[in-house]
Specification:
This protein is elongated. The chain is an alpha+beta fold. β6 and β7 form a beta hairpin. This is HNH endonuclease.
Amino acid sequence: MQSTEPTICTIDGCEKPVKRKALCYGHYMKQWRYGDPLHVPFKPKHDLLGERFGALVVAEYIPAKRSEGGSLWLCRCDCGRVTRVRTGDLRRGSAQSCGGAHHRYQDVIGIGGAHDRVKRMHGSASQHRCVDCGGLAAHWSYDHRDENERIDDKRGPYSLDPAHYEARCVPCHKRFDLDYLARIA
């Protein structure tokens, strides 16, 4: 006598072996837990797609996993990085950016702190070529193009934004600063 029980899951398109009640393990467990072998996982109550939270814009929903502490959202930061953030962290405001060091800058630093910031972000100027002559650079030189420029009474103008610094050798740095002073005088 031959068995009439199927050996492949009876759900259309599923090719997995039967576990119980003519269903594979996955479909059987969905039937057992939810009463429906084709149950679709939870969708978020509130669709956050496209919403902005600080520097983050929500791009995609990632279904809940217990090991990750619940539902996550894939968010794109203004700096271009992509990060995963829990729903609660977005709603509470505890996640406002991707968490990169460049988002933690304070606006209360002086010219020395600004140069330290540039060195932390881009490395030592001596690891770069001079933007003017192509020789080995020695200094980070402020480009004088920041609309939020700061002025140090003793050392002159500077920027809090590392993007406004360029690597220059000593002669080119002096020439660049003297040309700038001549233009503004």
